[in-house]
Amino acid sequence: MITVFGEGRGFRVVWLLEEMGLAYRLRPVDLLAGVEKDAEFLAINPAGFIPAIQDGDVTMVESIAIMEYLMARYGPTSLAPDPHDPAFPAYQQFLHLGEAGLAASIYFVVGARNFAPESERQNWSAAQALSVFESRLTLVTRQLARTPYLAGETFTAADISVTYALELAKTSGGITFGEVEQSYMARVRAREGYKRAMETCHSRKAWLEGKKYEHEPS
Known about the structure:
The protein is α+β, with helices and mostly antiparallel strands. 56% of the residues lie in helices and 7% in strands. The chain contains nine helices and four strands.
């Protein structure tokens, strides 16, 4: 049984597991309460950020690395095109852009807008992070104007990676998307795997419905 520790970016992992039909359990991690009180989790990831997984003797952190591990170990899967597939370069690019270019930058915007003192909410670093997010978003928009999914005609793990970042940007980062992005998000959210993942991730579901803010420290 694969154990997923924490929601937040852990939603990517849960969604992937649902799409692959793999058995797992989600073990909540309350970062707001303070991970220093969660000895079981700290034994898995002493750095104290989420997500993490435990799969037998394997322990891993970092959502994209976890996704790649699961697809390699339990695949093959259509979520990861073969390296010789013409879709592979776009898949690989957007799988990593979803974190390195989008989520990692909008994270700092979210932090500034939701947690910083009022005088710091529009600081230089937050503006720089927003500029990075917006520049990378143009690559997503251009690709989606050409194809229904980021790797082409077929849904892949790259869509899981990027959708997470877009949802974070829209719900907590104050980003307004155009018709291309909105249609895309509606399309991927209609997937049964996404719906099942949402039913598992109660905190995330409440956050997306506007009932509370989901803290995103990882």
